[in-house]
Amino acid sequence: MIIAQQSAEMAIASYLTDPLTGGSRLIEIILERGNMDRALKQVRSNKGAPGIDGMTVDQLPSYLRRHWQKVKVSLLDGTYTPLPVRRKEIPKPQGGVRMLGIPTVLDRVLQQAISQVLQKIWEPVFSDFSYGFRPGRCQHQAIQRVKQYTEDRYRHVVDMDLSKFFDRVSHDRLMSRLAAKISDKRLLKLIRKFLTSGVMIGGPVEPQNEGAPQGGPLSPLLSNIVLDELDKELERRGLRFVRYADDFVIHVGSRKAADRVMRSVSRFITNRLRLQVNEEKSKITHPWWMCFLGFSFTSKRGDTRIRIHSKSIQRFKNRVRELTARNSAQSIHQIIFNLNEYLRGWWNYYRLTQSTSRFRSLHGWIMRRLRAILWKQWKNPRTRIRELRKRGVSHGQAVFVGNACKRAWRMSKTKWVIIALPNAYFRRTLGLFLPGFHLLP
Fold first, then answer.
1. Distance between CA atoms of 218 and 195, rounded to whole angstroms?
2. 13, 250, 292, 418: least CB-packed within 10 angstroms?
3. Which residues have a Cβ under 8 Å from the Cβ of 423 and sit 6 or more positions away?
């Protein structure tokens, strides 16, 4: 089944790259109705902010009905010019900001349509050790591969970080790699226009002579095409590695080998790819110390287990604090609704963990924060006494606890508040979702 699928993919790629068949008319293939409909559907499902023209994804279909023929002609004759992207700063979890470039929704649809066709050309030749932004591949598979290397006793890890990768991609090198498989010069010209369309920051438009701005549907594929050269070099050397986008780790058997690999791969990245290695963040480490895609590993009696890295736990707690702020004017039902949305998404990503020792304390901490919210929302002693009595606390204890002057956080751990607001109340009555709850003994 897998062999048949791979053969079909290779046949499609061969057709699309052959100048005598589809290779010289890739633009026409990209602009076919079915491909454009899939691109439009994908962009609309992703939603996202408007570009510099202010057009939203909901306004795009009516715009295309009125103007598509004109846009299509300009794409076919090579006169189409993308608009500059809108710069947006996204805070990084470790500090600093990530610069996103948001194209207009029309340019996003065109980039998505191009990406869908080019994916069929490059997917068959991409490395088996590359997992980012590829159909049928995900972070969990990358983590399982790292676990396998660790179990095979390759426990020295070269953890390399590329400095501002998306901002430093060489346009000339990228276009050269594209031209090796694309014979339609109109498409090559269009892709270069997307790369050099410029960035609008406030008022003026800044030109782009290098880089592939994050934020457009085409950038992930272009990044894989650039870094496929690195993948092939690491494969040629027989190294055991895992790459997800611009994050990659190389596993070796000894510290001496790790030092040698670190030096030689850094030279290759700098001299051949014309990219920059972040010396401060790149290091030689071990699986139980590293943080790769938010995960780490632990080993006990030879048993390697996947665990959530402490930095990921800290980011989790920071977000939960924001969602359960006691000065929020929201009802407890709305707070839990918002919290559940985050917890389900978080657990969907981190469910791969095999170490559950942290969950009991995290669950208790979340419950305490919710009790503190309710205690504060009850506001005055009369309300607190009434609510405590309604939940089974005796009159004397309710009066004593309800008149206490301690703050909500202190009161949330007292015996009678816990009796009045047990864990089951939040889970069963209010529907709180607790990540990993079913894994606890």
1. 10
2. 418
3. 363, 367
Q: Beta strands of 125-188 (E only): which ranges? A: 156-161
Is the separation of the CB atoms in 110 and 75 below 8 Å? Answer: yes
Which value, in Å, is the radius of gyration of the alpha carbons in the chain? 27
Closest CA to 312 of 94, 91, 98, 163: 94
What average pLDDT values come out for the chain (441 residues) when binned by 10 residues? 57 63 80 95 91 92 95 95 86 68 94 96 95 94 96 94 86 92 94 89 73 85 95 97 95 96 96 91 93 92 90 95 92 95 95 88 94 95 95 94 93 95 93 78 52
**Residue 314 CB coordination number (10 Å):** 11
SS3 of the chain: helix, strand, coil, percent, to 5: 55, 10, 35
CA quadruple 103, 109, 123, 132: dihedral positive or negative?
Answer: positive
Residue type (1 letter), 114: I
Q: What is the DSSP string of 389-429?
A: HHTT--HHHHHHHHT--S-HHHHTTSHHHHHHS-HHIIIII
Strand ranges in 132-212 using DSSP code E only, listed in sequence order: 156-161, 199-200, 205-206
What is the CB-side half-sphere exposure of residue 203 using CA atoms within 13 A?
0
SS3 46: helix
**Rounded Cα gap, residues 263 and 267, in angstroms:** 6
Residue ranges of the alpha helices (H) in 18-76?
26-30, 33-46, 60-76
Strand 247-252 and strand 240-244: the pairing is antiparallel
What is the C-alpha separation between 359 and 299, in angstroms, rounded?
A: 19
The C-alpha atoms of residue 352 and residue 267 are separated, in whole angstroms, by 35
